[in-house]
Design a protein that fits this description.
- By secondary structure, the chain is α+β, with helices and mostly antiparallel strands.
- The chain folds into 3 domains: 5-45 and 150-224 and 327-368, 3-Layer(bba) Sandwich (FAD/NAD(P)-binding domain); 87-146 and 229-313, 2-Layer Sandwich (D-Amino Acid Oxidase, Chain A, domain 2); 387-532, no CATH class.
- The protein has helices at 17-28, 64-80, 102-113, 122-128, 149-162, 212-218, 282-292, 353-368, 387-393, 403-409, 413-424, 442-449, 457-464, 476-486, 495-508, 516-532, and strands at residues 5-7, 10-13, 33-36, 52-53, 85-86, 90-94, 118-120, 138-142, 145-147, 166-168, 171-179, 182-190, 195-200, 203-206, 225-235, 243-246, 255-259, 262-266, 270-271, 304-315, 329-333, 342-347, 433-435, 440-441.
- The strands form 5 sheets. Strands 6, 7, 8, 15, 16, 17, 18, 19 and 20 form a 9-stranded mixed sheet that branches. Strands 10-3-2-14-22-21 form a 6-stranded mixed sheet, with helices on both faces. The chain has a 4-stranded mixed sheet with strand order 1-13-12-11, with no helix packed on it.
- Strand 23 and strand 24 (440-441) form a beta hairpin.
- Helix 1 packs across helix 8 and helix 11 packs across helix 12.
- The longest helix has 17 residues, at 64-80.
- It is globular and about 65 Å long.
- The two termini are 45 Å apart.
């Protein structure tokens, strides 16, 4: 069959956590499925959030059902996606500005939802987290954790592919065809090859997140989804080892989440009419600093690494906006709207992505008359690394602790290790360390560059964290491009063009917080690339 004509049972639209989770679920049920995504892996919201694996404590008072879903899915994800989760636990902290009467209600609601809470003395909490405000009045421990959204989506995709699922990245949906009120096909445009494809199918799952309304419109449907922008700040070091929340009703700037060597503060909530509205403003960053400072009084002395933003797909019937809009997820069978075989799923949180996928796949399986149950809560996404193989790899890897790399690459571990061994023999000189901040070696970059779904340095970044550390690509971007060129590893674009595109994306996140030490770092980067290497003559920060 020609590649411009594809046949399958189900087309899933959207390559974030919910879409890829849906692909995995369908594949495990034995249902033939193809996923299409307009960008790369985790192009949208799943790569633009604070990385909190919710215990449910944040929603305990306002939405007990959501809180219960969060703690249940939190427990499942720790088991099936251990390589994506850092089990940090979390604190909820009451400050003098907060309502003391809220505490007992919150404790009771947590218990009702099944969320375990433990009150610590302020002294004990500050011994564990010394940077927390000495003005704290009460502190509670909850089972919050951190999750790597990039890795979660990637590992779900790996699992789906092992069971027959297919992923088409950089494919934009341009049309949805129907016949006599029933789904017939999906038209897509390959933005890399500039070619069109028709995917014939029996059902479509619209899991496009903030783009769900636009996708539904292609099928002549209307769904009440409103993009809501949230901006966040990334700090250069890990000044808390635990997730720290304000103990009050959910609001802006009241969550601090540690990730590796950095800490993320988020988030704002602003209604927008653009799903791709991902540029934070300086005003939003200053607002977050003001709100976060009471919890961590030294906040303004910490170096800001970058700022970023993403959009949430909020379910907004009745035109509710911002934090007044529901955070619950919704599954729509559009047969009631006159179109059989078209399903939409939106809303919710990344923590509940697996449950969301299960519910929509139950509906699809019922429509297709497939008698297969969901197994995603029982099966690990990727297998644990072979510890003996990792011990052997120390001889030809320039990194002492290989667990970070093993957790990142998942199913590709053997390929990465084989490449490293082939290049080095018994020494580490043939497999140099390219990114010192995130411990990324040439073998890992080469393995991912060889993947048919990798087309750019940004694709490699999302899978390895190359350029996401302290230097924000200032040093490792040039090393990566140079090493790849020397070893014949090619990407879609010219190396110089690829380098400039990569740096522009990195430095775009620095612009909203370009003051103090960060401004000095920007000047250094500009001097290296524009002054010495003549890359980006008009400046690297546009």
């Amino acid at each position: 069959m020609p590649e411009d004509r594809i046949e399958t049972e189900v087309v899933v639209i959207g390559g974030g956590a919910t879409g890829i989770g849906t692909l995995r679920d369908l594949s495990l049920r034995g249902i033939a499925c193809v996923l299409v995504e307009q960008g790369g892996i985790a192009h949208g919201t799943s790569s633009r959030f604070h990385g909190l694996l919710h215990s449910g404590g944040r929603y305990a008072v306002s939405d007990t059902v959501s809180a219960k879903e969060c703690i249940e899915e939190n427990t499942i994800l720790r088991r099936i996606g251990a390589q994506c989760v850092e089990e940090t636990e979390g604190f909820f902290v009451l400050l003098p500005e907060d309502d003391a009467d809220y505490v007992e209600k919150w404790v009771k609601c947590c218990a009702k939802a099944g969320i375990q809470t433990e009150e610590l003395s302020v002294e004990e909490a500050r011994r564990l987290e010394p940077e927390i405000s000495p003005q704290a009045l009460r502190v509670f421990r909850v089972p919050d954790s951190c999750v790597d959204g990039f890795r979660l989506v990637l590992h779900n995709a790996m699992s789906a592919r092992r069971h027959g699922g297919r992923v088409l990245l950089y494919h934009k949906v341009t049309g949805i065809a129907q016949s006599n009120g029933t789904i017939k096909s999906v038209e897509v445009f390959d933005t890399l090859t500039q070619t069109k494809k028709t995917i014939f199918c029996q059902a479509v799952v619209n899991a496009a997140g903030s783009w769900s309304g636009q996708i539904a419109a292609l099928a002549g449907l209307d769904v009440p989804v409103t993009p809501d922008k949230g901006s966040l700040i990334v700090f250069n070091h890990r000044f808390t080892s635990r997730v720290v929340n304000r103990l009050h009703p959910g609001s802006d700037g009241d969550i601090f989440v540690p990730h590796g060597s950095i800490t993320i503060l988020g988030t704002t909530s602003t209604t927008t009419d653009r799903p791709d509205d991902t540029r934070p403003s300086r005003e939003e960053i200053l607002k977050l600093l003001c709100i976060g400072e009471p919890l961590f009084p030294k906040l303004r002395t910490y170096r800001i690494l970058r700022a970023f933003a993403g959009t949430r797909p909020l379910y907004t019937p009745g035109h509710a906006q911002g934090r007044n809009a529901s955070r619950n997820f919704q599954v729509f069978d559009h047969a009631k709207d006159g179109l059989n075989g078209f399903f939409s799923i939106f809303g919710g949180k990344l923590t509940t992505y697996r449950l969301m996928a299960e519910k929509v796949c139950d509906a699809v399986a019922d429509y297709l008359k497939v008698n297969a149950v969901c197994t995603t809560k029982d099966l690990p996404m990727v297998q644990e690394a072979d510890t003996e193989r990792l011990k052997e790899a120390r001889h030809y890897f320039p990194v002492g602790d290989l667990s970070l790399m093993a957790d990142r690459v998942g199913d590709d571990l053997d390929k990465v290790l084989d490449l490293a061994q082939k290049r080095t023999g018994s020494s580490s000189t043939g497999n140099p360390l390219i990114c010192e901040c995130e411990m990324v070696s040439l073998a890992e970059i080469e393995s991912i560059a060889q993947d048919p779904d990798s087309h750019s340095l940004t694709d490699i970044r999302l899978r390895t964290r190359l350029g996401m550390g302290t230097c924000q690509g200032t040093f490792c971007a040039l090393r990566a491009i140079n090493a790849m060129f020397e070893h014949g590893i090619t990407l879609s674009k010219d190396p110089l063009c690829e380098l400039q595109t990569f740096l522009q994306e990195r430095f775009r996140g620095l612009a909203p917080a370009c003051w103090g030490i960060q401004a000095q770092e920007m000047q250094l980067s500009h001097a290296i690339y524009a002054g010495v290497l003549n890359v980006g003559k008009k400046g690297l920060c546009k």
